[in-house]
Design a protein that fits this description.
With about 180 residues, the protein is of the alpha+beta class. The chain has one domain: 60s Ribosomal Protein L30, Chain: A. The strands form two sheets. A five-stranded mixed β-sheet has the order 4-1-7-5-6. Helix 1 runs parallel beside helix 3. The chain is globular. The structure holds magnesium ion. Magnesium ion (MG) binds next to strand 1 and helix 1. The site of magnesium ion has 5 residues, from strand 1 and helix 1.
């Protein structure tokens, strides 16, 4: 839409999206894949059970982008029953979500995400994860935030049996006024 086009409520300048994901963590001999979070490999004795690479953070961010545009979610676009998604790099999912948003004129403004896992600690790789997310989303580094938390040793996440991520993203159509 051109900048001079009339603006109505069906074309808001800003849209917010939320994404959430969880993966069970298992040792490799029980089907756990290598642990990858935000596209960065972490050394651990267990990893996510998933059709794709099981990247919990990229899945949450992908769903946040899709959710902001009220598009079908990651499970609908990339079913885990589809063999094409076997061990698939989850960066593909996020890249496709960003492309679908761009087709509709929206680009990401800022991302705030939280990863919850008991171990290993996220801190040593947090900067790498941020940089990778900024690259995948086409955003400056200071528009991307990633927080790491434990689950205080309670419930499945706290017992190291699962990893969880939440993401909130703001999307903008630059030519429209908020
Ligand atoms: Mg997932």
């Amino acid at each position: 839409m051109a900048a001079s086009s009339p603006q109505d409520s069906s074309t808001p300048a800003l849209r917010i999206g939320h994404g959430y994901d969880l993966h069970r963590l298992e040792p490799a001999d029980a089907g756990g894949r290598p642990l990858v979070i935000g596209g960065i490999r972490l050394e651990h004795d267990r990893g996510p059970v998933a059709r794709s690479d099981g990247d919990v953070l990229l899945h949450a961010v992908t769903d946040a982008v899709l959710g902001a545009l009220a598009l079908p979610d990651i499970g609908e676009l990339f079913p885990d029953t589809d063999e094409a998604n076997e061990a698939r790099d989850s960066a593909d999912f996020l890249t496709e979500a960003v492309r679908l948003a761009a087709d509709r004129g929206y680009r990401p403004v800022n991302l705030d995400a939280t990863v919850i896992l008991e171990r290993p600690r996220l801190k040593p790789v947090k900067a790498e994860i941020r940089a990778n997310l900024a690259r995948l989303l086409g955003m400056p580094l200071d528009a991307v935030n990633v927080k790491g938390k434990t689950h205080e040793r309670v419930d499945a996440v706290g017992e190291g049996r699962a990893v969880e991520a939440h993401a909130v993203i703001l999307m903008q159509r630059p030519e429209l006024r908020p």
